[in-house]
Amino acid sequence: MPLHEGYPETPQILHIGVDGNGERQGIAEERTSAEDALARLETADCIVCEHGPPECDALAVLAAVRERDASLPFFIVTDDERTVEAAFSMDVTDCVGPDSRTILSQKIERAVTCYRNERMLSRAEAVLEGLADAVVTIDESGEIRYVNEGFERVLGYDPDEMIGTSLTRVIPDRLAPVHEESLQRYVETGERRLDWESVETIARHRDGHEIPVTLSFRSEACNGDELITGTIRDISERRTVETELEASRERYRKLVAASPEAILVADTETGEIVDANAAAEELLDRPRNEICGMYQWEVHPTEHHERYRKIFDKHANGGGISRSSEHLSVVRSDGEQIPVEISANRTQLGGREVIHGIFKDVSERKARERTLESLRSATRELMTAETKTDICEIAVEAAGEELGLSLSGIYLVNDERDVLRPVAVTEATEEIPDEIPRSEDGNGPAWRAFESGEVAVFEDRTEVYGADGRELTGEQEMVIPLAEHGVFLLGSRSMAKLDEYVRDFAEILATNVRSALDRAEREETLSAQRAELVELNRINEVIRDVDRALVQATSREEIEETVVNRLASAGLYEFAWVGECEVSVEAIRAVANAGNAAYLESLEPSDDRQECPVAKAQTSGQAEVVEDVMTDPAFESWQDESPVGNTQSMAAIPIRYDETCYGVLTVHADRSRAFDDREREVLVELGETMGMAIAAIESRKALVSDCVVEVEMEIESAEHYFIRVPQELDCTFTLLGTTMAPTGEIHCFITASGVSSGAVLERTAQAEGISNTRLIRERNDECVFEVTYEGPSFVKALVDRGAAVGYVEADENRTRGTVELPMDASVRGVVEAVKNIAPGARVVAQREREKPEKTATEFRMQLSESLTDRQRTALETAYLAGFFEWPRDSTGEEVAELLDVSAPTFHQHLRHAQAKLLKTFFDQ
Fold it and tell me: Which residues form the PAC domain (predicted)?
């Protein structure tokens, strides 16, 4: 573009004054006023002002012009030296005398030409700087005269550093000679061998990488020089898009060719098929050259051409992607009609608008839909079937009718016998075995599929399923696991192969069978649970009734009789009884019975009952349940002529409290497997309740009884702390007494003789079950310790059973001690409690003796005999003065003042008196 394009050819020169003649040697001047000239500054190229104040003050006009335009040519016509001097100080262009008109004309022409060129150049630069493309101007030598800011954006070079350099700086070295030759030829001859409007080439970026660009050139003369201006545009993105577009077209061609679906491409306007892939040739049974040239609707049935033409027009006019699947078909060369689903999309291909149609053969899908509908019907039947047998029969029938599998059967697992047993089989074969037992190696196909949960398929294979060698023979066979229920065996002699279609639907059918069997099993479980809940509610009602009776019971015998009578009379069980094993002999003794005396008469004391559930329950402390009396080895001698009546199952429940077993509650039922987990838990809780009640009664009796049973026991060795430490340290331990903390911890006060306190403390720190040990005092060779037990302790076990500890002494050889029990307490239970902690314990002696109880008068007399007068006076005065109240009515100092003694003396007497009082009380 020429730099002067868009400017008026004739300069606008405004003349302010009275002597202007309208033209000055070819330069037209327009006479005007100062006000008009100032209003037209935007379009003026020069102002000439004659100085003639006051009418025309050229200096004032110059000042006004310079405020708005600092470069507009401004000439003053005057010969006044002072005016000239002032004008030059105000940046006037020049001053000329009134007689120098010719000189003025020459100066105006030069100034106007320069001013117009500068304005045009400024405008051009503003336009060029706003361009996104790079713009460069070179002279005939190739030297750069101008570059815009876009040059840096495109090529990375700073515009200022490019001025004066050669254009070859941005041209790759391999192309520089060609550029120089072309420029020289153009300068010398004006010959152009390339289209200057658009040349694609390569430019070199400042960082060294090459970028594809397009160049457009234009030459023009400027001040006598031939300049060439070029526009450089980065076409990297365009090249990338073109490359991707070509790659996309290539992918499209490959996808069409390799697509497994038939593809026909037809002209949108005419409907003529212009391309087809190999799948289309196979679908239509025609070669590609025959298909191309046909009209789209001609591949469909002739009688429906008009319908298919309308479908094609709808696709062509609608655009986008459209699908049609209802009652559509194509015709093969032999006339066979194939149902298809069509997906059509209008698109551009090689500048041509076409319809891209995908024809999917849905023959198999239609067949599958019919089969699926049949399977849906079978599924509805499966979901309404009430029993597992009905479910299996429906599934086997569907496999034969809908899948064409003549050999099929469903085998459900029998966990007890470890076999798969047929529930439903087809009538077409007699080779389905009656049952499939688990093989020794576990590798039978049916069991392998059942246990792995994976479908097994066998082709042209004979499999032995039975232990007797019977075979299931078919050309094709499948074994589908039915989760934990069993397996679905499927086979066919007529099919060459169980194709994927048959396998899929067989697995769908098997999945529905699994769901139906799950549902049937859930319903069976719910029904059983409802019956169980009814039974459990009845049991709970009986247990609540028993609990109420236990609260009012006053003896162990009453507790035992109440429980067995209530259980037997409730109608839930055949009979119930309470028994225990004798200490002296390994035999069972019945202590309470309700419902069957014949059974109890069979329990001879001399019988060996090591395997009896009752003996096991008492020994282990755990409930023992016999699911079926007629098959249990413990009842083998009674299975011909059973003394247990109609008993089919029984439960032996230990009557326990803490570690003591008071006996066994045995319940008999007239049905097998009568005691499920919930019922067992309820009975176990009943046994624990009985144990707690018996323990409470025995504890009460221990407090009020005048007679006791004294059992003397001896232990030679055990892991218990009290027994082991004296043997290891060769010393003697004597139990002074025990207390029990609210948290259940036992505090034992022990005297250790013949050993240092340090040795005892060191050994105690290593002992298990001891949470804390404290030295109370050490005098001579005797130490007193407080030992806190957090683990099992024979003291706690004895206290829980209503027993009282007499004396206990352990030395390096053995441990001896006595235990006092109520007259009706279980000696065996106490002995077992001790043996649980010290298995080597043995009874040395057992005797009955009276437990003397002192009266209050005897107690006071014994206490008075032990107190001195001062101790008695101090104790009585402190009591009467309220020293023991809380808060105290009198302090120790106040009581001491009453006694006329010092406070330390009072406290000494009081402590001694309190110690004697407590000793007298606890020694009782």
Answer: 324-374
